[in-house]
Amino acid sequence: MNIKTRFAPSPTGYIHLGNARTAIISALACRHNSAKEQGSFMLRIEDTDKERSENKFIEAVCEDFNSLGLKWQEGERMGGEFAPYRQSQRLDIYQKYFDELLCLGYAYRCFCTQDDLLKMRREQKLSGMPPRYDGRCCRLDQEVIEQRVQDKQPFVLRFNTKFNHSPDAEIIFNDLVKGKQRFPRHEIGDFIIRKEDGMPTFFFSNAVDDSLMQVSHVLRGDDHLTNTPRQIMILEALQLPLPQYAHLATVMGEDGTPLSKRNGSRSIRELISEGWLPLAIVNYLSRLGHYYADDKLMSLEELGAGFDFSNLGKSATKFDWSLLSHWQRQALMAMDEESLWQWMSQAIGNKVAEKDKLQFAGSVSANILLPQEAVKYTQMIYQQDIDFTAAQLEILQNVEDGFFAEALTTYQQGGKFVDIIKNIQKRFGCKGKQLYQPLRIILTGENHGPEMAQLLELIPKELVVKRLQRWIR
Ligand code: GLU
Asked: In this predicted model, what pLDDT tens digit does every residue of 181-227 receive, in sequence order?
């Protein structure tokens, strides 16, 4: 069987680290690019919340997927045999299944008002009962229902969880991550499947679409685990095929609560615009909940080929910026100078001479994680006057007489950094820190930084001379 997975966002905000991880793992799970299987990944838009859904967020998901290099074969923008892929355009399809559930007896109209429900909850609480819809509208006489419908009384549709089943029946399914799951049917109250305004609830449209669109594997966060028995009940009542479920372990923020905007989750577009590399994001997020034996930087194709449901992690994982930074470093190391320059050019603008830009990018890339961090190196290279700290002054004052004069002479004779080092070493016999540190400080004003040999090539000649001359004794 070919695997078909999907990502089904509600377009009410930008994709952030948490849901991008679900999307990436879902895309990898279908192994679209694997040699053995030819699965597909679908993008469905769950825009049934009319108030909060916005077109710009639909556009944004597609753009973010493109930036990450995530390809989907069906759904939004791509079309496919189960179109439309926006749930707001599938209302007539849902209506057909509402009618069927009503007709079968699995659904009933509930006319309870918010006040009725509040009162019910309060009474249940007082008598120590769990807060659950008590099914009162399920017991209404047919004439009463007809009269209320005629009177245009608003109603929702509820799914009757007890109908057609013995009181001790259970919903049992095998979750591909969490293992066997059992939920007693009687513990699940009759839940709403169609809202007053005619829109389906999440439970309903999400389950029905997964089945109708022949999704074979639903991968999603384990905050949805308790929704699954409800969704299975709906599909079983409609005799629609069930997908397999894989509920991914929660990603925690640094404060130990689920990752959210509150505790550090950031939107993918924000991260990319700051310069986080898509390949770094993808390598990190795909490993957040899936184990790869290979810890080298991999392309999406390689990550897909290495995907295995049995390698999905069972326990919650913590989002760790230092690991994202590790992958950023790996991704930077894999880039050539041209791509490095493209990546940082916006931050650097014309602060670097045109002829030097590739060399600049190559020289500083080992010292930065984000483009903005490269700006300080332009300053290091082009500054006219350097202010030293007291500690630096002490280091400079302690060098032997003639140290910088030797450097200047070598430089003016066309010597490179290695030649300067060689000559000073020969003449003064110093090595290591004693040799390198004063040179770095005098030439850049910093104690650390990119490789001096490369930096020296970038600093304009007259500035190198000026910086060395200043200290000649
Ligand atoms: N629209 C749902 C959400 O964004 C989809 C959940 C699912 O993947 O089933 O949470």
From this structure: 999 999 999 999 999 999 999 999 999 999 999 999 999 999 999 99
Q: Considering 272, 307, 334, which residue would you say is the last residue of a domain?
A: 334
Structural domain containing residue 131: 92-194
Residue after which a domain boundary falls, among 273, 301, 334: 334
Q: Is residue 205 assigned to a domain?
A: no
**In this structure, what CATH number is given to the domain that contains residue 103?**
3.90.800.10
Same domain, 121 and 186: yes
C-beta of 205 in contact with ligand 1 (< 6 A): no
Mean pLDDT of 81-92: 98
Regarding whether 297 and 391 lie in a shared domain, the answer is no
Kindly give the distance from the C-alpha atom of residue 10 to the centroid of ligand 1, in angstroms, as a whole number: 7
222 lines ligand 1 (CB under 6 A): no
- Asked if 33 contacts 301 with a C-beta cutoff of 8 angstroms, the reply is yes
Minimal CA–CA distance to 282: which of 69, 128, 41? 69
In short, whether 46's Cβ falls inside 6 Å of ligand 1 is: yes
For a ligand 1 pocket test, name from 206, 209, 245 the mutation site with the most ligand atoms within 8 angstroms of its C-beta: 206
Tally of structural domains, the chain:
3
Scanning 365-470, the segments in alpha helix (DSSP H) are: 375-382, 390-397, 403-412, 417-428, 432-444, 452-458, 461-469
Mean pLDDT score, 458-462: 97
> Do 213 and 44 meet the contact criterion of CB atoms below 8 Å apart?
yes
Place of tokens 């640094």: 254
Taking CA atoms only, the protein residue closest to ligand 1 atom 6 is 8
**Has residue 376 been placed in a domain?**
no
Cα-based distances in Å from 410 to 403, 428, 466: 11, 14, 14
**Pocket flag, ligand 1, residue 224 (CB < 6 Å):** yes
- For residue 220 and ligand 1, the question of a CB distance below 6 A is answered with yes
Query: If you measure from the C-alpha of residue 431 to the centroid of ligand 1, how many angstroms do you get, rounded to a whole number?
Result: 62
pLDDT of residue 262: 87
For tokens 């699995």, the residue is 106
Q: Structure pTM?
A: 0.93
Residue from 224, 225, 260 whose mutation best tests the ligand 1 pocket (most atoms within 8 A of CB): 224
Instruction: Report the CATH number that the domain containing residue 61 is assigned in CATH.
Output: 3.40.50.620
CA–centroid distance, 9 to ligand 1, in Å, is 6
The answer on 179 and 96 residing in a single domain is: yes
| Distance of CA 25 from the midpoint of ligand 1 (Å) | 14
